[in-house]
Write a structure and sequence with these properties.
The chain is mostly helical. 76% of the residues lie in helices and 0% in strands. The chain contains eleven helices and no strands.
Length: 266
């Protein structure tokens, strides 16, 4: 459900951003700031507390930081193994998030509206996969096998993006990307490894680690794009960030396989 909600937002947001971007580069950011404010007001005044009193515990400063949270989770070996996978996958995801606009404008001469529309298609596919298809496929494949299939499709999609010969095929290749992204991440498996009273601690620690990838990922992917597209580049290859993302995803797949094998999850 969370994935489907994200997909719906990804349908509407890029389209609005693409349209507003035609009125000035700063306009989408002001609109985003307004939406964040509305979200904050909703969370503070409307959203009810989800943690039952029996699952609450006293506040401790040593646990109120990502390092402390993750250190306490060392007793769950599956969690530690999957954290490395999650970091690699989040880094890989920035190939799309940070360079999609540059890549499609450079290679296919798309304008802002076309970029917004294409990202809307990405969101539509994610919403369809997360909101409907996952509910059918996961029970049939099993959660573990679904992760393997998802990672494989995700890596394949990045390779297809890297070598896409046309904008139309770029849109077609969104299909395996959405199918892969739907199961490439594995929050359900991780959440199932810890008791109810430690769920918040797990999610908080993971969110902090994801924030670290938002520092590294954009710089890494945009630097790759620049290196292979600037006028002095010895090899012109705008798809370099996507190829790097496929390698990161393949590495994540091997870590998942090893983690599951060591912990007898396979």
């Amino acid at each position: 459900m969370i994935g489907a909600a994200f997909g719906l937002g990804f349908i509407i947001g890029p389209v609005i951003g693409g349209l507003l971007g035609q009125y000035g580069a700063r306009v989408p950011f002001f609109a985003a700031a307004g939406l964040v404010l509305v979200n904050w007001l909703y969370g503070y005044f409307v959203l009810p507390e989800s943690l039952p009193p029996e699952n609450r515990r006293s506040f401790e400063w040593k646990r109120a930081n990502p390092a402390g949270s993750l250190l306490r989770l060392r007793k769950y070996p599956v969690i530690i193994g999957l954290i490395g996978t999650m970091l690699l996958l989040n880094l890989a995801g920035f190939a799309t998030q940070s360079t999609w606009s540059y890549y499609t404008m450079e290679k296919f001469s798309w304008n802002e509206a076309q970029v917004g529309f294409s990202l809307g298609v990405v969101g539509l596919m994610i919403a369809l996969v997360q909101g409907g298809l996952i509910r059918v496929l996961v029970p049939k494949l099993g959660q573990k096998r679904a992760v393997f299939v998802g990672l494989s499709l995700y890596a394949l999609a990045f390779i297809l993006f890297a070598f896409a010969p046309s904008g139309f095929l770029m849109l077609i290749f969104i299909i395996p990307s959405a199918l892969g992204a739907g199961r490439a991440h594995h929050p359900g498996i991780m959440a199932g490894q810890v008791p109810a009273r430690e769920q918040g601690e797990l999610q908080g620690g993971l969110t902090s680690l994801v924030s670290v990838t938002t520092i590294i990922g954009p710089v890494m992917m945009t630097s790759l794009f620049y290196y292979f597209t600037n006028h002095g580049a010895s090899i012109y290859f705008p798809g370099a960030p996507f190829l790097a993302a496929s390698m990161l995803t393949i590495a994540a797949l091997f870590i998942v396989l090893r983690t599951f094998r060591i912990n007898n999850i396979l």
